[in-house]
Write a structure and sequence with these properties.
heterotrimer, A alpha/beta, B mainly alpha, C mainly alpha, B: 2 strands, disordered N terminus, disordered C terminus, C: mainly alpha, ABC transporter involved in vitamin B12 uptake, BtuC, two-stranded antiparallel sheet, 11 helices, 2 strands, globular
Chain lengths: 236, 327, 288
């Protein structure tokens, strides 16, 4: 169970996140929704130790991790997929995948995990693609590679930061399909997204972040019925 | 007077006493007088050199590693004039101006690069000069150049000359730091692109500052030449002087008018004390001190002399914030 | 001397110079790529290697080429020491780190000056002026061997970086630090290894140069600028760029040696770099 309690984060003198709380339980697919500038990426970065928290705590199975450095947090099983391009551009797709094997267990399970990854993301799995330089992949393919890479490390929790951002609609569909299937395998996923419509269709629960504060929470279906959501985020 | 001390009477009095002491030194017969004058003379020469670097590096964060170029050129220019029979003081002035003018095309070359690239170009230029001067006998060859004796080859003469020049350099730095140009330099050091966007004439400001900086370093070199009466390219164009210029300002107090003086005193003291024992050892100690300072007192030794609420010194801080896209 | 002999001479000299320049720049550019540190003390490590080789040959009577092995081992130790007690603390300092490395340059040069004095020395190679015959052409054997060793080292390092796990991690950190961190790559360990490789390869280059040219504690300045010239021309952090730029500068210098006396030939590299920086400050193959 990943719990965030009263987390506050800021940059310089500016506080961006105001006492935010949420939780991700075993096997859940939970989303953090919000528009531009709401503070979603900031929240994820704080959880991963990339930003120092101003207050509050982050607990992993009851143990505090908010004081730890990023490499330690990663070794505890949190895998983070940032919103910007973060493939290693001058290395092949295969090399990118193999670099994610950061534990003995992951190395042991390499063949099996790869098969699952190929199954989830056929676009980047052909023999030619595997030998292609990651920097030459299209935006959508790079996005898939980064998620695939996170999976190679056998994460206990998967944190995705706006995976659909900037993708063509057909790719977005593929992407959400893949996320559903990863969820079906039992990996707990914390999904930060702007695409409220598709997200609410696949999640167990979601939180809505506005101006650094959680204003709503509930199950996917509950939220999609709420007038506020329908007006502000679904354009209905 | 207020501009000098921000209204702090105690500082004025202390400085006044020190200045009087410095002026009186050659006249009273105290023990170790010659040693003290030697240390101070070199300290003053180094102050000029460090202060010249400080203008660009301390204010605008343009870290030059080639100030030996101006130092050496100034030394040779002064020597050349002097050998032609021109009186020493005029030779010094001519040297300073000539090198300052020469710095204009150099600036054009150097300022096309930024950050570490700027540093490397300046280093390359100093090295080119060193190699060329070594190579061409018309310039100096490996034999070096001699200077005729003058009033400044006497201990007392050079002492007072460099003392006056040092005071002048401190005033110049302070004046420049507080002028519009100084503010612009600080802004350029923070974010050069933002400056050009709001209409600051970046090229002009950098070039004019380099003009003064080169002139000052050249005068330092000229004094060095007048005093030691012998110049060798391997000496005056060596990276050591460029490094010392940086260290003096950094150890003493980067961006502060008195910083280079403090740093130069330390360097000169080390040099005069350690050199007779083990030549070159002072540079070693200097390096070690520098590393210690960088970790403990990043703004330099001058911070020890400032009141705790005035750690920044008279330098004003201008922050130009670029508008950040929403996170 | 007919033109074909001249051309071959120039070509071989170009290869010789290039091999050394590439070797010394390799470490510099790796260190920049992985640690974002501009190592102004790089050439002093080279000179240190030269003196280490000198000691090994003159005091311990080793054959100079055999001595290269303990020299590299020694430089690796120096690398480890300087990382643990110095370099690792400069990683978070930002742009100001250049001053730290100037200080390191000063310290190393002057320790060497104190121990060995300022006169020029070189490492006797025992090969004198013997020549090697390549077909109908002759070339100094010493330079030939030095070039081979340099090129072999560069090839070996390139292979290591391409194929080994650590090599890939080094390249990964160099390409995207944040991604490497969130993937659990131990960046401190990787930086340490990179630094040690950088320092050792610089030391090796210095030892090799010492066999061919006389050197003194301050002679590093010239090689420092050459290394920067190659690194910037090829793009700081780009290993492929270093190789290409190294050949460009080495060949150009060889060509100009026809017209210029040898003392002034380093100026070729310097003028080159000034030209490049004025036109394209990021270099040929920068990673931006």
């Amino acid at each position: 169970m990943l719990e965030v309690k009263n987390l506050s984060v800021g940059y310089g003198n500016l506080q961006v996140i105001h006492e935010v709380s949420f939780a991700l339980g075993k096997g859940e697919l939970v989303a953090l929704l919000g528009g531009n500038g709401a503070g979603k990426t900031t929240t994820l970065k704080a959880v991963m130790g990339l930003l120092p928290p101003w207050g509050g705590e982050v607990l992993l199975d009851g143990k505090p991790i908010h004081q730890l450095k990023t490499p330690s947090i990663v070794s505890l099983g949190l895998a983070y997929v940032p919103e910007h391009k973060s493939v290693f551009p001058k290395m092949t797709v295969l090399e990118n995948l193999e670099l994610a094997l950061n534990s003995e267990k992951a190395k042991e399970m390499k063949e099996e995990t790869m098969r699952e990854v190929f199954d989830l993301f056929p676009r980047i799995s052909s023999k030619t693609k595997l030998r292609q330089m990651a920097g030459t992949l299209s935006g959508g393919e790079q996005r898939m590679l980064v998620i695939a890479r996170a999976l190679m490390s056998l994460p206990a929790y998967l944190l995705l930061d706006e995976p659909s951002l900037g993708l063509a609609p057909v790719l977005v569909q593929d992407l959400f399909e893949a996320i559903k299937r990863i969820h079906a395998k039992g990996v707990p996923i914390f999904l930060v997204e702007q695409n409220v419509n598709l997200t609410l269709q696949i999640v167990d629960r979601a939180y809505v972040l506005e101006q650094g504060k959680i204003v709503l929470e509930g199950s996917g279906s509950e939220l999609s019925e709420m007038p506020h959501i329908r007006e502000s985020y679904l354009g209905i | 007077m207020q501009a000098i001390n921000q209204g702090n009477k105690k500082t004025v009095i202390v400085l006044g006493i020190l200045t009087l002491a410095a002026l009186a030194l050659p006249l009273v017969g105290i023990p170790y007088q010659e040693y003290a004058m030697s240390v101070l003379t070199f300290a003053f020469i180094y102050t000029l050199l460090g202060q010249s670097w400080n203008l660009l590096g301390g204010l605008a964060k343009q870290f030059s590693l080639g100030h030996a170029a101006f130092f050496g050129l100034g030394a040779f220019a002064t020597a050349a004039c002097s050998s032609l029979g021109v009186p020493a003081l005029i030779s010094l002035a001519v040297g300073g101006v000539a090198v300052a003018i020469f710095s204009l095309p150099i600036g054009l070359i150097c300022f096309s690069a930024r950050g570490p690239y700027f540093t490397i170009i300046t280093l390359a230029i100093a090295e080119i000069l060193r190699i060329v001067f070594l190579w061409r006998p018309e310039l100096s060859g490996s034999e070096g150049m001699l200077l005729p004796p003058s009033i400044f080859s006497t201990r007392i003469g050079i002492y007072y000359l460099t003392l006056v020049l040092t005071a002048a350099s401190i005033f110049t730095f302070r004046w420049m730091a507080r002028s519009k140009q100084g503010l612009a330099l600080v802004a350029i050091g923070d974010d050069e692109d933002a400056c050009s966007e709001i209409g600051i004439k970046v090229k002009y400001i950098k070039s004019s500052t380099l003009f003064v900086s080169a002139g000052m370093a050249a005068v330092a070199g000229g004094c060095y030449g007048l005093f030691t009466q012998y110049l060798s390219p391997n000496d005056v164009f060596s990276i050591n002087y460029s490094l010392e210029a940086i260290f003096i300002s950094t150890i003493g107090g980067i961006g502060s008018a008195f910083g280079p003086l403090v740093g130069a005193l330390l360097v000169s003291l080390l040099e005069e004390t350690l050199n007779p024992l083990v030549p070159g050892a002072h540079l070693l100690v200097l390096g070690a001190i520098l590393i210690a300072i960088m970790f403990l007192l990043p703004k330099g030794l001058v911070t020890l002399f400032r009141k705790s609420d005035d750690k920044q010194g008279p330098r004003m801080q201008i922050k130009i914030k670029r508008r950040q896209p929403a996170a | 001397m007919d033109y074909s002999t001249l051309a071959v001479q120039l070509f071989l000299t170009g290869i010789f110079l290039s091999s050394l320049y590439i070797l010394v720049t390799f470490g510099l550019t790796m260190i920049f790529g992985v640690m974002e540190i501009v190592n102004f003390a790089h050439a002093s490590f080279a000179i240190l290697g030269g003196y280490a080789c000198l000691l090994a040959v003159t005091s311990m009577g080793m054959d100079p080429f055999v001595a290269l092995v303990p020299v590299v081992a020694f430089m690796a130790l120096i690398g480890w020491l300087t990382f643990e007690f110095f370099a690792r603390y400069t990683l978070d300092v930002g742009d100001a780190h250049v001053v730290h490395y100037y200080a390191l340059l000063l310290i190393i040069s002057n320790i060497l000056a104190l121990i060995f004095g300022l006169d020029y020395k070189f490492v006797p190679s025992g090969l004198g002026y013997s020549q090697i015959e390549i077909g109908p052409f002759k070339y100094p054997l010493l330079k030939f061997i030095v070039a081979i060793i340099s090129l072999a080292t560069v090839a070996g390092l390139s292979l290591y970086l391409k194929k080994s796990v650590i090599g890939k991690k080094i390249r990964a950190v160099s390409q995207s630090k944040e991604s490497a961190e969130i993937m659990g790559i131990d960046s401190l360990k990787i930086r340490r290894i990179t630094w040690i490789i950088g320092v050792s390869s610089a030391g090796l280059m210095g030892a090799l140069v010492g066999l061919v040219n006389p050197f003194s504690p301050y002679a590093g300045t010239t090689y420092l600028i050459v290394a920067f010239s190659v690194a910037i021309l090829g793009g700081m952090g780009s290993l492929f760029g270093t190789i290409v730029a190294g050949f460009i500068i080495g060949m150009t210098e060889s060509l100009f040696s026809l017209f210029l006396p040898s003392q002034i030939s380093p100026v070729v590299a310097f003028v080159f770099i000034i030209g490049v920086l004025m036109v394209k400050p990021e270099g040929l193959f920068s990673r931006a």
